[in-house]
Amino acid sequence: MMEVRITGRKNPLIQQVRRLLTSRREREKAGLFVADGTKLLEEAVRYFPGLDTVILSDGIAAELPEQVRLVRVPEDIMAYISPMETPQGALFLCRLPEKMEFVPKEGMLLLDGIQDPGNLGTILRTADALNVPVALLEGCADPYNHKTVRASMGAVFRTQPVQTTWETARLICSEHKIPLAVTALSDRARDLRQAGVGNMAVVIGSEGQGVRKEILDSADAELIIPMTGHCESLNAAVAAAIVMWQMQKI
Question: What is the tens place of the pLDDT at every residue in 162-182?
Fold first, then answer.
């Protein structure tokens, strides 16, 4: 295994890490993304073939594949590049995977404009745990933002996020005769528990705006999660988890 030591903040790798952490465009241009933490590193080593470079603070140990580049840095450099207030001493670069084509399936989620990386990561983590396919529509946060990766607890290493457009998803689901449903607060919405969501593709809308009007207008069904009257809505990740749980019950 090749190991090098870096002690200066102006080193090209150190500067690249800082750019990758803050810019989706930089990640896509370089074909790399950054994740942090010893637990996530273990998940990447175990499941993700694209692990490229590992940066460890002095005194931190990790078992790594032979082909991975190891970089040692003092604690002040780790503090300089780590997005964590209290760095764990491990930060690593992974190659972005090739984009996968959208494949429609019954009992899947379509995420519409989920912009909060924490919510997106939590949904991906839950979907991975319940084996529910997920596709990201327009306006979603970057699944390879370090905050998304952290919130997913390594789910992005085990199950690659698929990205597509609403138009593509609508056409392909129609071709495969998979009903498209949306979660919505309306008089027409059916109780989620009686809707047979395991046979559908269900759209979860954004945190602030809900599902886009064009999707509402062309969906086959509207669904509602029953709640007490004084509650108007749920966090997007919580709503997604309830829908996914109900998908398992048919």
Answer: 999 999 999 999 999 999 998
